Amino acid sequence: MSPIEIGAISVVAIVLLIYIGVYIPIALAAVSFVSIWLMRDNFDLSVNLLKVAIGDSAMEYAFATIPLFTFMGLIVSKARLGSDIYEVMSTGFRRVKGGIGMATVGANAVFAAVTGSSIASASVFAKVSVPQMLKNGYNPRFAVGVVAGSSVLGMIIPPSAMLIIYSFVAEQSVGDMFLAGVVPGIMLAIAYIGAIWGMGKLFPKFVGGRPASDYERMPWKEIASKTLPTLSLITIVLGGIYTGWMTPVEAGAAGSLAGLVIAVLRRSMTLKGFWEVLIETGHITATILFLITAASIYSRMLGLAGLPNQLGEYMTNSDFALFQIMVFYVLLMLFLGTLLDTASIILIVVPLFLPLIEPMGLSLVWFGIVTVVGAEIGLLTPPLGISCFVIKASLNDDRITLKDVFLGALPFAAVMLVVLIILIAYPQLSLVLLN
Amino acid sequence: TDTIKAVVIDGYPSRALWVKEFTNFFIPAVDARLAKTGNYKMDWQESYGGSIVKPKGVLEGVKLGLGDIGIVTTIFHSSKLPSQAIAAVTPFVSSDARAVSKAVDEIAKEFPAMQNEFKKQNQVYLATGVVLDTYQIFSKKEITSVKDLEGSKVAGAGMNLRYLEGIKDAAGVRGGLTNFYNMVQTGLVDHAMLWPEAAATFKMAEVAPFMLDVSLGAVNSKTVTVNADYWKKLPDEVKTALQTVAVDYRDHLAGLAMDRAAESIKAYEAAGGKVTKLSDEERKAWVDSIPDIATEWAENLNKRGEDGTKMLNAYLGKLKDAGHVGVRDWTAK
Amino acid sequence: MFQSTFHGISKIANSISKLANVIGTLVVLGLVIIINYDVFARGLFNSPFRGAVEVVQFSMVLIVFLQLPDVVRVGRLTRSDGMLLLLEHKVPKVARVIHFFINLLSAAVMSLIVLAMFPEFIEMWESKDYFGIPGVFTAPWWPIKLIILGSAALCTVLFILKILIPKAGGSK
Ligand code: NA
Ligand code: NA
């Protein structure tokens, strides 16, 4: 069997196992193990690969960013920083058609800068802004769709667990990936706001809502007290990384501490709540890192099979254009996005495509942004769309079905796709802050 | 003609100097030797840059057979490969990569210690590589004496942090090649210890335009090894080819490192950097302030049943014969 | 009779998982404290904590492998179970077979990790190998190998128990 055949068969086997419900890390490890065993007819070699990969993966210094930013995100959610930002934003946007939707996007973009996951964003804003929109006569589908769509910002605007994961697979610096995520994240937020404005003009019924009557200007003092904590956290974390004062790991720790101080000062933290945050952080860290470990077994299996070498050779001998590769790449991510979570998609596709992209002299930082945005479209698409699930679960409202959430999110998934294409076409958008 | 498959591994990417030269020098040289008789032909699979192992994982990867041949970065493995620190524990002796790599390699072949350490890791030692000529100090402000380092923060990596131990109130801050630039730029540290080639690559002249020419010395950091089970099965002709080429590769790499160092200093100066030479008295004062890390090293090996003291003396003797006499006599107790 | 033995083992395994989880949780807190200490000590007192890198690496292993059994226990390992839930509804028999297969495969993978890590632990225990820089900061390897070994062993037991006592420990 040629390396390319082994690569192809293993991907099919992994997808099948995952589809019937096998735990994703187990599927990755099992298929990799069997592949090497069959390929080299050497059981010990398979065991040795497990040994090396398991020992290595968790020992990565940069991975400390995962528990740290998870912890920070959970703490600031408890400290209600998300809803504060939302309230400030909504006073600004209220009079526009679809204004609460725009405020939700804006608040999500800001909140994204202090949380590392979309799940935190989705659950916070499902509880805060959906009821507001329903109260003001918005179409329920639009209301949940906005929240689902904008929750994705949490994992594009840094800090982001997905950017960290990519930086590990592609051996890029976490700091560089974080900086690269800023402009695309802001772009996506602006695109969403523009889309909402457009939908308000073209399909007013889909948006619904009436201009707010109880409009009252928020006093400056209140605006300050609601935004300063978040702004100071952003300054510590992104400022610390951007100036080089702190490594991303240290920025995560400093942000966690600052978040904790804010939560305590606001009296929004009980000992029990604090303990829950710690346990949740541990669970999420273990889940993600075990997945990463399993994926590293898989990518090393591909390496041992010689797949990167073969693909590289194949590329130099054929005349595939970058265009064709990227079309195929995006389609593959969209397909996997229907049933896999973002981290798994990144961990499965990146080792396959890196050997194609690297020899072409393209920026791997840019490729990472493309990958993360592409993989995150899957958060919004059925049957498995994590953001939509979280919103449905957080709402706990029988009038809004899961189908409503998916249909509402669809236009936003389409906007993401358009932004993705722009990001592919103009790498400079991702790289501008790096140079 | 028999075809023999060889998987070569390193965790560093193919653009790294020693990896690139493995591809462009080592492999063609072996192929050319084997082609002379035509008895054997190698089928190389080069897997670099984390596709099978990370930089720290090469030793284990070769041990476990994930790679047949590997370029082990020995400074990561002070506990498994203690004798490899021989150049690092004898600073201020030689800044000639060629002399140091030759001396270390000969020590490896004349004394059993280094080969035993690799044997324990189920691999066969081929040759030592030296890829840097010497650590220097790169600073934000101009410094001319060791006194200027007192009370300051100096970024370094690995064993060279210990060179600072005798300087009053100087704090060694651990960093890596990729973040020295930022560390100096932000004032996190006042100085950074790295070698000129790395300084040029990472544009240190922009943030640290003053280089103090201390010439702390060349350090061995790369060793080419072969998995022992794989080695056993190799025909003698292939074994000889690998061994011979490994020595050529050693000298080729060290020569390149020296050429690059000279070019890099020029590039650093062209980019606005200024080089100040540390006076001989100052160098003497610094080296005398360092704890006796060479004796520590030798005694540690003696305790393990190797001939540490003799190795140390023989190594320094070889360098002396090549015209490199240390500022401090590391053999003295 | 077997069932009650299984339930007994299950109780013990679950308690160990929860305990490990608590310790792992405290390590998360420790991580936040240690890194902040390093940042402040370096910035304000010119005295960085020279073992920060090793301690962070060590903590990561502790967090991941001390919490992993609890993640397995509560069924939170990453998966895509939409199809399986559908089958549970429509053809419960098929779903049961698939559950059996999944748990068996998971137990097999975990036991392979045990198989891989056991000699590794013994070797490190005997050689007392360490990582880090001598004279700067070093930490022994064996506790890391032991934690991974123990974690994988516990996960193996938990998956086997899920086969023996369907729904015990909750598949969801
Ligand atoms: Na974020
Ligand atoms: Na999806």
At a glance:
The complex is a heterotrimer of chains A (435), B (333) and C (172). Chain B has helices spanning 17-37, 58-63, 97-110, 112-120, 180-185, 196-201, 228-233, 236-270, 280-289, 293-303, 308-321, and strands spanning 2-9, 40-47, 69-73, 123-129, 136-139, 153-156, 171-174, 191-194, 210-213, 222-227, 274-277. Chain B has 333 residues and is an alpha/beta fold.
Instruction: Identify low-pLDDT runs of chain C.
Output: 168-172
Poorly predicted ranges of chain A: none
Which cofactor or ligand species appear? sodium ion
Largest beta-sheet characterization of chain C = 2 strands, antiparallel
Distance between the termini of chain A: 44 Å
Radius of gyration of chain A: 22 Å
Q: Biggest interface: chains and residue counts?
A: A-C, 56 and 52 residues
Distance between the termini of chain C: 26 Å
Secondary-structure element series of chain A: HHHHHHHHHHHHHHHHHHHHH
Largest sheet of chain A, in brief, is:
none
- Percent helix range of chain C: over 70%
Question: Approximately what portion of the residues of chain A adopt beta-strand conformation?
Answer: under 5%
Q: Strand sequence of the main sheet of chain C, in spatial order?
A: 1-2
Strand percentage of chain C lies at: under 5%
Instruction: Note the overall shape of chain C.
Output: elongated
Helix-strand category of chain C:
mainly alpha
Please specify the SSE layout and strand pairing.
The complex is a heterotrimer of chains A (435), B (333) and C (172).
Chain A (H helix, E strand, L loop, with lengths): L2 H17 L4 H17 L2 H16 L6 H14 L2 H13 L5 H14 L5 H18 L4 H12 L9 H9 L4 H29 L1 H4 L12 H24 L4 H18 L5 H35 L1 H11 L4 H18 L2 H16 L6 H13 L9 H10 L6 H24 L2 H4 L4
Helix pairs in contact in A: 1-2, 2-3, 2-14, 3-14, 4-13, 4-14, 5-6, 5-12, 6-7, 6-8, 6-10, 7-8, 7-19, 8-20, 9-10, 9-17, 9-18, 10-18, 10-20, 12-13, 14-17, 15-17, 16-17, 16-18, 17-18, 18-20, 19-20
Chain B lengths: L1 E8 L7 H21 L2 E8 L10 H6 L5 E5 L23 H14 L1 H9 L2 E7 L6 E4 L13 E4 L14 E4 L5 H6 L5 E4 L1 H6 L8 E4 L8 E6 H6 L2 H35 L3 E4 L2 H10 L3 H11 L4 H14 L12
Parallel strand pairs in B: 1-2, 1-3, 6-7, 6-8, 9-11
Antiparallel strand pairs in B: 3-10, 4-10, 5-8, 5-9
Helix pairs in contact in B: 1-8, 3-4, 3-8, 3-11, 10-11
Chain C lengths: L1 H44 L6 H22 L8 H9 L1 H36 L2 E4 L3 E4 L1 H23 L8
Antiparallel strand pairs in C: 1-2
Helix pairs in contact in C: 1-2, 1-5, 2-5, 3-4, 4-5
The complex binds sodium ion (2 copies).
One sodium ion binds next to α16 of chain A.
